[in-house]
Amino acid sequence: MNPETRRQIRENARYLRSVRPLDPEEICEYVESQPHPAVVRQVLREEAVDLALVERDDGAFVPAPEGPLSASVHGVERLPFEHEQRVLALLTDAYGEDWAEGESGDRLRERVRDTKERYLRQDDVAYDELSAHGYAIYHLPDYYAVAAYLLGDLAADGLLPSQLRVLDVGAGVGGPALALSDLVADAGGLLDYHAVEPSAAADVLEAVLGPAEGSRDVTVHRETAEAFDLDGEVDSGGPFDLVVFGNVLNELDEPAAVLERYLDGLADDGTVLAMEPADRNTATGLRRIERAVADDGPATVYAPTVRLWPHQSPESESWSFDRRPDIAVPAMQKRLDDPAGGTREFVNVDVQYAYSVLRTDGGRAIDITPDRATHAPMADAESYVTDRVNLLAVKLSHDLSEEGSNPLYLLGDGSQTVDHFAVRTDPAMLNEDLGTAAYGDLLSIQNALVLWNDDEEAYNVVVDGETTVDRAR
Questions:
Q1: I need a surface site. Which of 271, 289, 343, 409 has the fewest CB within 10 A?
Q2: Same structural domain, 152 and 39
Q3: Residues 320, 327: Cα–Cα separation, whole Å
Q4: Where are the beta strands (DSSP E) in 299-347?
Q5: Measured on CA atoms in the order 235, 239, 240, 243, is the torsion positive or negative?
Q6: Residues 109 and 140 in one domain
Q7: 262-314 pLDDT, tens per residue?
Q8: Diameter of the chain by CA atoms?
Q9: What does the pLDDT look like over 2-35, one tens digit per residue?
């Protein structure tokens, strides 16, 4: 298209957007070359993010909504069909219709096995094309679900603006990107999405995202997290409302330093969302990184491991992760698994994840400061072992008990030097909130017996018939 034609369409749109809904047929009359209305419509779609426009169902363009993104996620049952079909199309293009059979299927299965083994050994994984395809089959669906839940929580708290500028560091094959795109599109917002991904996974990301739409602008930076010119991008396009680290911090040599650098790219009211798998190594590693930037650095933990007590920092291991219902088996996983005997070796539908939400404005999801006259800090646990005390604590696990044992839950208040586990020995109406509260909820625990557990080298907060547990917010 003639650059002058595009410029005139943009200028007319900028002028008329504050006057009335934009009709492509009207705008074409103001452009010297008299382009077809379909051409004007396409330009408006391509320039929608920059012009802050959204297209209505009737075909007119209006100013994009302002304020917080009005979105919610009540559950993720499966990877949406259209995303699944794009992954299948990608695999068909690469290996043919029978991609899960024969040599190509064997190569993909072997690569998935090798990648899982390397991950468990904490070895480096090189993401060439084959690895990226295997990763898309095995991990994209559950990473989509994880991101959808967490982004829904951020939106529910009013932390995502309707016109959302996002930097996805180590974007991989696109799970978080797809969840972001769906969330913003469903809410009628605008997404200015930037991915930082140097590997062949970027090719998968671009394929599954599909072409840019009127509500979304996509830029893929094929650079490492360390090499990406963050300052230059902020200078040219502005700070980011959200910076995402999806399952990448554990792969960096100096994750805390990288994370702290990216905090400088946040808007004043921006948010960092870091996600990691739920296994002990990556989940506890995330907590160490979190402490480096939040307790000794410029950030505040917004959720879930909120520091309730001022000037206190946790030192416990805190193997903490959330869990949601399994998603349906994606078609590409079933197709890869069936030729191997249908053993579910190549099926991954668990939705378990560790996460950290960080802010630089001091904001916390639980904005409560305990009073020592009423509640005991976990940091002082050694002084009140065998006593009954009152605690304010964040629930940081689902039930961890083995079958036939008393329900067991990890607790934290941001001051603990050693892990604290609530043990419900005498279920009663007065303490049922311990079991029914959600991960990350604040609990008021009254008259709990605190004991030292030599075997686990942790404190047990015994919740018995004399103990009351209530959600505190």
A1: 343
A2: no
A3: 21
A4: 300-303, 322-324
A5: positive
A6: yes
A7: 999 999 999 999 999 999 999 999 999 999 999 988 999 999 999 999 999 99
A8: 85
A9: 889 999 999 999 999 888 999 999 999 989 898 9
